[in-house]
Every structure is written in structure tokens, then in C-alpha cells.
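Justification of computing resources. Each target in the renewal requires a structure prediction run like the one illustrated here; the chain below, 350 residues long, is used simply to show the kind of job we budget for.
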Amino acid sequence: MTATANLPRLALLVLITGLLTACSNEKTPTQQWQHSHLGSYAAAFSPDRRYALVGDTDQPAKLWDLESGKIKYSWQNQPDQAGTTTDVAFSPDSRVAATSESNTVVLWRLSDGKPVSRLQFPVPVKDMALAANGDYLLLALQDRTAVYFDVAANQVRQIFEHDGAPVNSPINQLINTVALSADGKTALTGGDDRTARLWDLETGEQLQQWQHGSPVSLVSFNPQGDYVITSAGNDQTYLWGLPSAQQIAALNTSPIPLDGPWADFPVFKTTTTAVGYSADNQFIVTGHPNQTICTWRARNGENMACWQAPRREALKPGVVLQAVTFSQDGQSILTEAGNGLAQKWRFTND
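Resulting C-alpha cells:
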């Protein structure tokens, strides 16, 4: 019998809470910028780590140059009418960016800031991902589908759906989140049916399905394409190897493993809102809705550190991390939060 088995339930809860609290503390960023005055609805870092795109509330979306700390471009779907940007994204080659306002998506060239295409869809866009050069879009739509859209041909190439079977529902379930592999061959979708699914973009065939304990809110390919990350709200975040589709790790900030009866214990559950990868594929950074930022080893999901971003105003609610990444030199972590603050943090891998 283990030592923890002899502890009363309340004492064990105190122990677990203390372990989790010990690995998360507020610290001071090395640099900080105010990227939004009212707060942002969405944010993303370019894959080349040169820019941050922030969707301001009731303001044009702004592309920030991270080196100079200045706005490079301001973008809005209608030249004379600023709306709330509900989602933003970059192509994997950092040549094209996308902004979404409800059911309208505009693609923008980063070289000169000019619009490439303006696309309107019959229902609002929930999430989006771009292929190289912005040639294709993968969109999670409010009508319970995800569509793979050929921009040049103005045509839907594939439609993906999440049937309700995993949650014993007779109707298809909402798709919340999407991602495209860097090579443009496969797609990820995550939905209210509590599954993340891997798809072949050429044939539309489902290649893999991973079950979670609640609706899936985040899916992501690492840039090298040898693993994916899937996360369910108030549940768990997993690493899955490719092409094996086998679990590498469940991200866990406690030394107590998540197998056995502890997997459903509330203190072990979390929500991941953002993920980023180091250029050498050795490290992962995650952002969460409770001000928390964490770093992990990619090979086994080992937790390295967690800390909390300070609030913009002490009496306002917690901060949702909307985008996270590593700096170009790999020595720092960059974050964008929903309170409008961008921050830079020192990263150590020991």
C-alpha cells in the first residue's frame, strides 16, 4: 500500500493542492507591451516568430512587429467600419494572415499588407487554419461542419462532420477547433462530441479518432508533424505520436500520475487555450485561462515550470492566454493575453 493511500481524503486533497500550487507562481516578464486598449478577442504569433496579430474589440486587427514593438498594419474587413475580429491565423510559411469577423474572412499579404481575398460564408466561422501561401482554408463553421476551402477556385474541397455517436446523440455535433499539418496533407478537428479526429485532406477519409472526457477545445500539429496535441475543456491535454496515433503523454503538473482514480479528480483538470513549440522540437509552451503559462519537454510531456502572468488590473478577473510561442533565439517565451497585454518571459530548459 502506498503512503498516500493511508492519508485521509481531506489531507490528501490539501497535499495535492499544495503540489499544484507550488509549481505555479506569479513572476515578472522581461518585457511587456500593450497590444490592445479594450482587450482582444483573438491573437496569434506568426510561425517565423516575427509578428503578433491581435484582434481588437471594436477596432481594426493589428499586426505588431515584435522586434520594433510597433504596429506594421491595421486590418479590418470593411474600410469604413471597424468590427470585432473573432479569429486570426497565419499560413505556416508566414506569408499570409487571415482575419475573421463573424462569417467574413479576409486574407492579407504580410509583404505589403494588401488584401488577397475576401470570402463570405453562409454561417459564422468558429475557428480557422491556413495552408501554405494561403491557398486553402480549413474552417470550423457554426453549422456543425468543418470545410476545406480552395481559395483560388472559390470551392469547397472537403466537408468534415462529427457524428453524435460518441455522446449517444442522433445529430452531428459542433466542431470547435481545427488545424492543418504543415505539409498540407492532413487536418485535425475537435468537437462537442468529445473527440479529436485526424483526416486525410485528399480523400476526406478519417484516419484517427481520440476520445476525451469533455468537448474538445484545442487541436494542434507540431511543425515537424511527428505528434499532435489535443485538449478538452476542464479535462486533459494529450500528446499523440504520428503516425502511430499512440499516446505519448497527458500533460500533468503534479507528480501524482493521472491513471487510476485520480484522473477524474477536479484539481487535476484544466483547460488549455494556446500552445506553441520550440524551433528544435524539444519543448512545448501552453497557455491557460487562469493566467497560467507552462513549459514541457516534448519527448515525454514532463512539466518543467508553470507561472502566472500578472493581471492588467489587480481587481479584474483572471487572464486568458490566447497565443504563446518561443522567441526566434529560443531564449524567451512570448505570450498574448485577452487583457490586451503581450509579454516576454525568460526561458530556461534546465
